[in-house]
Structures are given as structure tokens and as C-alpha cells.
Amino acid sequence: MNNSKKMSYALIISLLSIVLGFFVGALIMLFFGYNPILGYQAMIGKVITGPYFLGEAFREATVLTFTGLSFALAAKANFFNIGIPGQYLLGWIASVWFALANPDLPRIALVPLCFLVGALAGGFWGCLVGAFKAWRGSNEVITTIMLNYIALYLTNWIIRGPLGSQLKTPEMTENASLSLKWLSELSNGSRLNLGIFIALRRNVN
What is the pTM of this model? Predict the structure, then answer.
């Protein structure tokens, strides 16, 4: 299959997934007694009312894109990975820790290093599941669910203890940020950042 056919196939699958998602969402709303048309009007209408909300929607979509890609990668190896929330949390807190520990590094070095540290931390958390399955025959679904909660409580403890207080970490240095001034101005001050282009690039590949 050539590249054009692969892209067409991927586009059709993506569109069908979106349609199916809306359909299932409508069924769930109907089941709980809500009007799906009004629900989708409220959801979509809020996003298109201004550049700020559109920017925030794309920012959230960036995270969802990466988590979806991580699930797809595991699925190709016939591994049902539902430990992505835990791996995401560990990768996030490791990146934050590294950025706070090295605030004076130039941005061109600090941002890639934060990516690398986060990937290694999240990968380590995922490797634990593989190790348990290989050595003890543990079911990956049960293991990943348990590790999700361990990661949640561990990151909460790190935020409240070693990294900061008042349920938040200290302010992040600008050198570790993916924010771009022109993107923020274009989206009326939203948190839309360079990550959206990285996510789109990886998704196309």
C-alpha cells in the first residue's frame, strides 16, 4: 500500500471514529435523559465562540493525541495498555522536577531534555508492567490499573512534599515552556503551545 492510500485509509478511519464517538455519546446522553443535540450545541458552541476557547480545546487535544498514540503503539505489540494515565503522570512529574532543578539551562537544551526525562520516566513505569507479566505472568490490565493509582498518589505526595506545597509546584521557568508568544496572542491568551505541531507531526507519520 503506497503512502497516498495509507493516508486516505487513515483519514477514513479517523472520520469514522469521530462519527462513532458522537453517536455513542448521543446514546449515553439519551440513556441518562439528556438531549444530545443541546449537549453537542453547548459543547461545540462554546469552542467556536472565540479564539481563547478554541486555543484551549486544541491544547487539550494535544495531550489526548499523545495518549492515543501511546495506546496505539502498545496495541501494535498486542499489549492492552490502560496504564497511560499513570505513565503520563510519572513522565509529567519527572519533566517538572528536571525543569525546576535546571532553570538556567537554555531553552533549546532544556525543552528536549525535559522531553527525554519524561519519556524515560513514563517508559520505566510501563516497563514495570512488562516485567511483571514476563516474570510472574501478571495480567497487564490489572497491573496497569493498580499502577495508575500508585502513580496518582505518588505524584500528589511529590507535589505536596519534595517539590512544593499548597497543592502546587513552584513556578516553572520560561526556558522549559513550549509556549510561543504569537500562538498565545493569536488565541487571545490561551495556553495553546508548540506541542500541537509536534502532535500533528507524529500523528501524520
Answer: 0.75
